[in-house]
Design a protein that fits this description.
With 153 residues, the chain is mainly β. Helix content is 0%, strand content 45%. The strands form three sheets. Strands 1, 2, 3, 4, 5, 6 and 7 form a seven-stranded antiparallel beta sheet that branches. Strands 8-9 form a two-stranded antiparallel sheet. A two-stranded antiparallel sheet has the order 10-11.
Length: 153
């Protein structure tokens, strides 16, 4: 993966960078780049490299760049695909923050785990307390209306 900032860019604090050969799901390639902490306020080009053997039966002409944001939501970006060089590229303006990068056929990269799992959150709206009922083992983060994180479990 190549990161080419549009201007001077500084990474604050420790941030490990790893590559996984395991697809997010059947709609993504068998390569995912992960940061240990959110990679914040990046503005510029991201070029994702892949091997033909990692395509997971996806037509490479349909590939799009997918970035996982700080809330663990995957977002697709209509990208420039270069099948000759095995790359998918996108220019980010305005800045973006992300945890992981992969390429997919453009469909959602959500997990199927929640399709059959009940999660109850109440009351809504909440003033002094909120209750979350689920059988899943989750990390929970609560944010106020300004986006400030109030609680993490």
């Amino acid at each position: 993966m190549e990161l080419l900032p549009n201007s001077d860019f500084q990474i604050n604090g420790a941030n490990d960078f790893t590559k996984s050969g395991i697809a997010i799901n059947a709609q993504s390639v068998n390569r995912v780049y992960n940061f240990s902490n959110t990679f914040s306020n990046f503005q510029g080009d991201i070029t994702f490299h892949y091997e033909d053997t990692e395509l997971n039966s996806i037509d490479e002409n349909n590939l799009v760049l997918q970035l996982e944001d700080a809330t663990n939501i995957w977002n697709a970006y209509a990208s420039t695909v270069n099948p000759k060089n095995n790359t998918v590229s996108y220019t980010f303006v305005p800045p973006i923050s992300f945890l992981s990068v992969t390429a997919s056929d453009g469909t959602s990269l959500g997990t199927n785990e929640f399709d059959q799992t009940l999660v109850q959150i109440f009351p809504n709206p909440a003033v002094d307390w909120v209750k979350i009922n689920t059988d899943l083992k989750l990390e929970t983060r609560l944010f106020d209306t300004t986006g400030k994180q109030m609680l993490k479990t």
